[in-house]
Design brief:
The protein has six helices and seven strands, in the order αβαβαβββαββαα. It has 135 residues and is of the alpha+beta class. The strands form two sheets. Strands 1-2-5-4-3 form a five-stranded mixed β-sheet. The protein has a two-stranded antiparallel sheet with strand order 6-7. A hairpin with a 2-residue loop joins strand 6 (97-99) and strand 7 (102-104). The longest helix has 12 residues, at 120-131. The protein starts with a helix and ends with a helix. The model has no long low-confidence stretch (mean pLDDT 92).
């Protein structure tokens, strides 16, 4: 799925501004650093979390011990906590950068997350960030 399509799906949920932010690889996708892969990870709180629950199925992710709302057959997943690393969700949402009308977690937090996760795709993403002068 093209990245524009993923972001259009998120926009269609009409989540309340100020209560959610795109995390995971989303901030890299919107900047053209990586292509959209399998899903878009979104952090939510308050009104955005409540609204998200009306748009999808609540799913337990045992590998991360968190519950998320799965929208559009898992293309957009929305949760209230981040299972990898130690992050303050309120800070991530409150400091989000608005790009193309959507809130994205700042890159410094994405870098920290990818360093902690350390999976092959995360290491590749860190390398691509370095090459782009953003890592």
């Amino acid at each position: 799925m093209a990245s524009a399509g993923v972001f259009d799906l998120l926009r269609s949920l009409e989540l309340p501004a100020g209560d959610y932010a795109v995390f995971g690889s989303g901030p890299l996708i919107v900047r053209g650093i990586v292509e959209a892969a399998n899903d878009l990870d979104v952090l939510a709180r308050g009104a955005a979390w409540k609204k998200a629950q009306g748009h999808g199925e609540l799913v337990y992710l045992s590998e991360h011990d968190v519950e998320v709302v799965s929208c559009f057959d898992g293309v957009v997943t929305i949760g209230t906590e981040w299972a990898i690393g130690e992050f303050d969700v309120d800070e991530l949402i409150d400091t989000a950068e608005i790009i193309d009308g959507l809130p994205f977690v700042p890159l410094e937090h994405v870098v920290l997350y990818k360093q902690v996760a350390g999976r092959p795709k995360d290491l590749l993403h860190l390398e691509l960030l370095e090459r782009a002068g953003l890592g």
